[in-house]
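Task: sequence in, structure out. Protein: QNR71 protein.
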Amino acid sequence: TTGPSSVSDSSLTVESVEDNPDGGCHIYRNGYYGSSLAVVEGILEVNIIQMTSIQMTESQAENSLVDFVVTCQGSLPTDVCTVVSDPTCQVSKSMVCDPIVVTDECLLTIRRAFEEPGTYCINITLGDDTSQALASALISVNGGEST
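Result:
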């Protein structure tokens, strides 16, 4: 950039830019530019406020089901993703994403199945077109019971 040059309208700035793409050719560009910026609120915070094991009969006990009650602040989410990982939150075991419809207040229940007992790291991500927010928790699933 060679710097701004003066013009008769002091609110506008003209910049002359030198572009040297192949070492021998000089291209000079002069002009005006403008842009607009839209600020959106986005999803500011996600909290897992409750985890409840769903009691099932012995004939249904192939998977342990857990309901996660989740709240958020800011704009309303349009999708939710749940990543189940090992207890260190390093090795992902499964990921499920679903579209959701939240109409008034950001309070939703997410049901997830666990194939075997153990301790898991749960990451729940709520997202919309412009933002994402994440909450994490450790959960111990004990053959139909969780703590």
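The longest strand covers residues 43-54.
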